[in-house]
Amino acid sequence: MTVISFMDKLLDSVDVEWKVMDEAGEFLRGKRFVKKDMLASGVPCIHYGEMYTHYGISAYQAKSFLDETVASKLRTAKAGDVIIVAAGEKIDDIGNGVAWLGEGDVVFHDACFSFKSELDSKYVSYYLRTRKFKDQIKKSISSGKISSINAKGLGKALIPIPCPESPEKSLEIQAEIVRILDSFTKLTSELTTELTTELNARKKQYNYYRDQLLSFEEGTVEHLPMGQEGIGEFVRGGSFQKKDFTESGVGCIHYGQVFTHYGTFATKTKTFVSEELAKKCRKAQPGNLIIATTSENDEDVCKAVAWLGKEDIAVSSDACIYKHNLNPKYVSYFFQTEHFQTQKRRYITGAKVRRVNADNLAKILIPVPSPEEQARIVAILDKFDAITSSITEALPREIELRQKQYEYYRDLLLSFPKPDTEVAA
Q1: Residue 114: beta bridge partners?
Q2: Element (H, E) at 335
Q3: Residues 244 and 105 both lie in one domain
Q4: Residue 362 lies inside a defined structural domain of this protein
Q5: Inter-CA distances, 64 with 339, 357, 407, Å
Q6: What is the pLDDT of residues 229-242, one digit of tens each?
Q7: pLDDT of 283-306, one tens digit each?
Q8: Measuring CA to CA, which residue among 40, 62, 128 is closest to residue 410?
């Protein structure tokens, strides 16, 4: 049975009233508290930022808590209320709700409203995420770095109420719609988890084979300091910042892009600097490695990309250039191994910002097999990398497709006959 035919059967001979939310229920704005007030135990609370990162359609437990003295001065939502987020950086997220189903009251932030009504709270929460609702409130959202909406803007949006003449029957229909949507939500969540698990398993498998290929029995291959004469040298980058980027000119790599844009190797740069500025910059030549020597976490420090383009490129500060006589992709793959990571950790310094300097990188030992063996290892790892990359790209697309499919059916289930009048501007 299709969703449409199911809804026709569910709504057989049943009227649907589109009611402004101000008449369907009551809005109450929360009161302000800050993240530093939040504790690991105490009175349950919901901060507006958590609405984006932690909560879904409903919640029985809060993630955060407040001291009783602080909480006593604030406003609370009761079981059955819907907490609606009213501020955020993304306009499409504003208006999302979570049905509070906990045993006790929960304090909520002043960038949220509670909505109290006789409707099924999960039914309301699901509806708040539909395109129909979002389109209605868009015109009432004030835009800026942080966009927001007030109770008046939320209150004039229309919500469909099936069988309004019989509250009991209406709740039965709402509960049935919630049951179906809960099933869709669970199925989508299970599929997403399954796909994510598959992706992680493939990555672990790839990492294992890469580390095995780049591990050599003692005595079979020399392990030499990366900065040893005849092996390579590290040169610090510098002389440009993000504000210096131009639409065209000399290719450049900023250290931050090594984390976000580049993989094992690159033949084209994402950004450029002017030819005049490039003359003052430190440059990487074809075959060199560009290494990000600064990061906020230990894992990303020393992430590297082999430059295989045809031209010299500028390299920013907080990165260094490794000039060497090895196979560039071989070295780049080596930087990804646990063998390299273990050595690197000895040299990490800094507190909030973690870094490894070029002098210490030069001390790290790298196995140096023959050029032919390096090329053989690279050819194998390139194949593994291609397979893993295709899976890495395909699975997120599949997850996104499943999410869109879920949203389509959710909106379809909550698409009742259109109201005779639209919301006033």
Answers
A1: 28, 83
A2: none
A3: no
A4: yes
A5: 40, 40, 29
A6: 999 999 999 989 99
A7: 999 999 999 999 999 999 999 999
A8: 128
